[in-house]
Amino acid sequence: MNNLVNQAIPAKVLADALKSIREARALVAPYLISLTPEERAALPKMGDKSLAFVSKAAEYAQSLPTLMPQYLDVASLAIDAGVNADLLPLYLELNGFTTDVDSTRMEAGSEGYTASLVAYSALKTAASLNQPGAQAAVTVLEPRFAGQGRAKPKSSNP
User: Fold this and answer.
1) Domain of life, per the record (predicted)?
2) How many domains does the chain have?
3) Distant-in-sequence, close-in-space partners of 74: CB < 8 Å, separation ≥ 6
4) 63 exposed, middle or buried (CB, 10 Å; 0-12, 13-18, 19+)?
5) Which sign does the torsion angle of CA 39, 44, 48, 54 carry?
6) Model's pTM, two decimal places?
7) Residue 135 included in any domain
8) To pair with 23 at 20 to 30 A between CA atoms, which of 36, 121, 133, 136?
9) Domain containing 70: what range?
Protein backbone atom coordinates (compact mmCIF):
# COMPACT_ATOMS: atom_id res chain seq x y z
CA MET A 1 0.00 0.00 0.00
CA ASN A 2 1.50 3.34 -1.09
CA ASN A 3 0.80 5.98 1.57
CA LEU A 4 1.24 9.44 0.06
CA VAL A 5 -0.61 11.33 2.80
CA ASN A 6 1.39 10.60 5.91
CA GLN A 7 1.11 13.63 8.15
CA ALA A 8 -1.78 15.49 9.68
CA ILE A 9 -2.19 19.17 8.87
CA PRO A 10 -2.05 21.13 12.14
CA ALA A 11 -5.38 22.68 13.11
CA LYS A 12 -3.77 26.14 13.39
CA VAL A 13 -2.40 25.89 9.83
CA LEU A 14 -5.87 24.95 8.54
CA ALA A 15 -7.56 27.71 10.55
CA ASP A 16 -5.04 30.32 9.36
CA ALA A 17 -5.38 29.18 5.73
CA LEU A 18 -9.18 29.34 5.91
CA LYS A 19 -9.00 32.79 7.48
CA SER A 20 -6.68 34.00 4.70
CA ILE A 21 -8.95 32.56 2.02
CA ARG A 22 -11.98 34.27 3.56
CA GLU A 23 -10.08 37.56 3.79
CA ALA A 24 -8.99 37.33 0.15
CA ARG A 25 -12.54 36.51 -0.91
CA ALA A 26 -13.91 39.45 1.08
CA LEU A 27 -11.42 41.79 -0.63
CA VAL A 28 -12.66 40.98 -4.13
CA ALA A 29 -16.29 40.18 -3.27
CA PRO A 30 -17.60 43.64 -4.24
CA TYR A 31 -16.27 43.08 -7.75
CA LEU A 32 -17.41 39.51 -8.30
CA ILE A 33 -20.68 38.13 -9.62
CA SER A 34 -22.35 34.74 -9.36
CA LEU A 35 -23.84 32.98 -12.36
CA THR A 36 -26.19 30.02 -12.37
CA PRO A 37 -25.01 26.87 -14.16
CA GLU A 38 -27.49 27.70 -16.94
CA GLU A 39 -26.11 31.22 -17.31
CA ARG A 40 -22.54 29.89 -17.40
CA ALA A 41 -23.42 27.35 -20.08
CA ALA A 42 -25.11 29.99 -22.25
CA LEU A 43 -22.15 32.38 -22.31
CA PRO A 44 -19.72 32.51 -25.23
CA LYS A 45 -16.43 31.24 -23.81
CA MET A 46 -13.12 33.07 -24.08
CA GLY A 47 -10.13 30.77 -24.04
CA ASP A 48 -6.41 31.46 -23.97
CA LYS A 49 -6.28 32.27 -27.68
CA SER A 50 -9.04 34.86 -27.35
CA LEU A 51 -7.41 36.76 -24.46
CA ALA A 52 -4.98 38.64 -26.72
CA PHE A 53 -7.72 39.20 -29.30
CA VAL A 54 -10.05 40.82 -26.76
CA SER A 55 -7.28 42.96 -25.29
CA LYS A 56 -6.19 44.20 -28.73
CA ALA A 57 -9.79 44.79 -29.87
CA ALA A 58 -10.37 46.89 -26.74
CA GLU A 59 -7.21 48.90 -27.45
CA TYR A 60 -8.25 49.52 -31.07
CA ALA A 61 -11.79 50.43 -30.05
CA GLN A 62 -10.38 53.04 -27.66
CA SER A 63 -7.78 54.41 -30.06
CA LEU A 64 -10.11 54.47 -33.08
CA PRO A 65 -13.46 55.54 -31.58
CA THR A 66 -14.76 57.08 -34.82
CA LEU A 67 -14.67 53.66 -36.45
CA MET A 68 -16.78 52.04 -33.74
CA PRO A 69 -20.57 51.69 -33.97
CA GLN A 70 -22.49 53.92 -31.59
CA TYR A 71 -24.16 50.94 -29.93
CA LEU A 72 -20.77 49.57 -28.79
CA ASP A 73 -19.92 50.68 -25.27
CA VAL A 74 -16.17 51.06 -25.72
CA ALA A 75 -15.58 51.94 -22.07
CA SER A 76 -17.33 48.74 -20.96
CA LEU A 77 -15.31 46.72 -23.46
CA ALA A 78 -12.11 48.13 -21.97
CA ILE A 79 -13.29 47.33 -18.44
CA ASP A 80 -14.29 43.79 -19.41
CA ALA A 81 -10.94 43.15 -21.09
CA GLY A 82 -9.07 44.58 -18.11
CA VAL A 83 -11.02 42.69 -15.46
CA ASN A 84 -10.57 39.43 -17.33
CA ALA A 85 -6.83 39.99 -17.63
CA ASP A 86 -6.53 41.20 -14.03
CA LEU A 87 -8.37 38.18 -12.60
CA LEU A 88 -6.40 35.62 -14.62
CA PRO A 89 -3.41 35.38 -12.22
CA LEU A 90 -5.79 35.06 -9.26
CA TYR A 91 -7.79 32.39 -11.09
CA LEU A 92 -4.70 30.41 -12.06
CA GLU A 93 -3.37 30.47 -8.50
CA LEU A 94 -6.73 29.46 -7.02
CA ASN A 95 -7.30 26.78 -9.64
CA GLY A 96 -3.92 25.21 -8.89
CA PHE A 97 -4.59 25.47 -5.16
CA THR A 98 -8.04 23.87 -5.35
CA THR A 99 -6.68 21.11 -7.57
CA ASP A 100 -3.97 20.35 -4.99
CA VAL A 101 -6.45 20.50 -2.10
CA ASP A 102 -8.83 18.19 -3.96
CA SER A 103 -6.04 15.78 -4.92
CA THR A 104 -4.86 15.59 -1.31
CA ARG A 105 -8.42 15.05 -0.05
CA MET A 106 -9.00 12.38 -2.70
CA GLU A 107 -5.76 10.55 -1.87
CA ALA A 108 -6.34 10.77 1.90
CA GLY A 109 -9.90 9.53 1.45
CA SER A 110 -8.78 6.64 -0.72
CA GLU A 111 -6.02 5.66 1.69
CA GLY A 112 -8.38 5.97 4.66
CA TYR A 113 -11.12 3.95 2.98
CA THR A 114 -8.72 1.21 1.89
CA ALA A 115 -7.22 0.94 5.38
CA SER A 116 -10.70 1.00 6.93
CA LEU A 117 -11.74 -1.96 4.77
CA VAL A 118 -8.73 -3.88 6.11
CA ALA A 119 -9.69 -2.93 9.68
CA TYR A 120 -13.33 -3.91 9.09
CA SER A 121 -12.31 -7.25 7.65
CA ALA A 122 -10.08 -7.89 10.66
CA LEU A 123 -12.93 -6.98 13.02
CA LYS A 124 -15.32 -9.34 11.20
CA THR A 125 -12.77 -12.13 11.53
CA ALA A 126 -12.29 -11.31 15.21
CA ALA A 127 -16.07 -11.26 15.74
CA SER A 128 -16.38 -14.70 14.16
CA LEU A 129 -13.82 -15.87 16.73
CA ASN A 130 -15.82 -14.23 19.57
CA GLN A 131 -13.07 -11.75 20.44
CA PRO A 132 -14.19 -9.16 23.03
CA GLY A 133 -15.50 -5.92 21.52
CA ALA A 134 -15.24 -7.10 17.92
CA GLN A 135 -18.97 -7.81 17.38
CA ALA A 136 -19.95 -4.40 18.80
CA ALA A 137 -17.54 -2.71 16.39
CA VAL A 138 -18.83 -4.74 13.43
CA THR A 139 -22.42 -3.87 14.37
CA VAL A 140 -21.55 -0.16 14.22
CA LEU A 141 -19.62 -0.43 10.93
CA GLU A 142 -21.73 -2.91 8.93
CA PRO A 143 -24.62 -0.55 8.02
CA ARG A 144 -22.21 1.09 5.54
CA PHE A 145 -22.55 -2.04 3.41
CA ALA A 146 -26.30 -2.59 3.87
CA GLY A 147 -27.98 -3.49 0.60
CA GLN A 148 -24.72 -4.45 -1.03
CA GLY A 149 -23.81 -7.95 -1.92
CA ARG A 150 -24.92 -10.45 -4.45
CA ALA A 151 -28.22 -9.70 -6.08
CA LYS A 152 -30.81 -12.38 -5.58
CA PRO A 153 -32.04 -13.89 -8.83
CA LYS A 154 -35.52 -12.70 -9.70
CA SER A 155 -38.20 -15.31 -9.88
CA SER A 156 -39.74 -15.76 -13.32
CA ASN A 157 -43.12 -16.52 -11.70
CA PRO A 158 -45.25 -13.47 -10.76
Assistant:
1) Bacteria
2) 1
3) 58, 61, 62, 65, 68
4) exposed
5) negative
6) 0.76
7) no
8) 36
9) 35-112
